[in-house]
Amino acid sequence: MCLIVFDWRPQASTGALFTLAANRDEFLRRTADPMQWWADAPELLAGRDLVGGGTWLGITRDGRFAALTNYRAPHEMRPDAPTRGTLVSDWLSSAPGERGTPLDYLQQVARTGEIYNGFNLLIGDFARRELGWYCNRSSAAPVLLEAGTHGISNAVLDTRWPKLVKKRAELAAFVQDGQIPALAQLIGMMRDPRLARDDELPSTGIPLERERALSAAFIDTPEYGTRGTTALRVSVAGNTLSVEAAERSDDNGSHRVTRPGDFERTYTFDATA
Predict the structure, then answer these.
(1) Which CATH number is correct for 3-272, 3.40.50.2000, 3.30.420.10, 3.60.60.10, 3.40.640.10?
(2) Which residues lie within the region annotated Disordered (predicted)?
(3) Are the CB atoms for 239 and 272 separated by under 8 Å?
(4) pTM, whole model, 2 decimals?
């Protein structure tokens, strides 16, 4: 994942508790399964990286959630570092309670965080109304997030990169006053190919031409780009969490890339709050 915007309302007694829109950016040659229930972890709904074996975003039938973005630091990349996607799948495929609370798990990850290339990790347990964040390239300790609309790209939480600022504001407008946008609207919002102006670009150690290309919310280059867009909403009513998930990707499940992607999958299910 390379761009995630989300609205978090842990005190909600009815309506949307969590609303997310996210783009996964990856090399087009890297094979992955689309979002689906995993055969070897049937409570887990997620895509699957067929190279590293983990995932970038997923949710379980008991309301646990995780998502990850890479931290852009090209001069610090180590080819021998362990895959970061297992940080997501390890939380989601474990038995309920096995890894403690979201903050417990993030603190566990932080103890060995230096062995990985840079990442941001979101870990949630919606039944507990807890959502935490940790970045292994930040001096900040793992933390539970308060209510608000946030964004993560390839720097720390809420870094003011142009595409993050723009999509975070668009999501905030969608959900203001308790509005419930359709998941298709959230997906459409993220599939925006407009580039930032040069004077808005961050400096992350890559050539200017590539910095420009990566400034779009929806990235499309010959070898690398946005491979899929996910929209997720978790709503609460009494003791029930209702989960709605949708994915639009460039892979129909055959592991062949077709650009632009228009293969869609949707899932709905209830979890106990």
Answers:
(1) 3.60.60.10
(2) 245-273
(3) yes
(4) 0.96
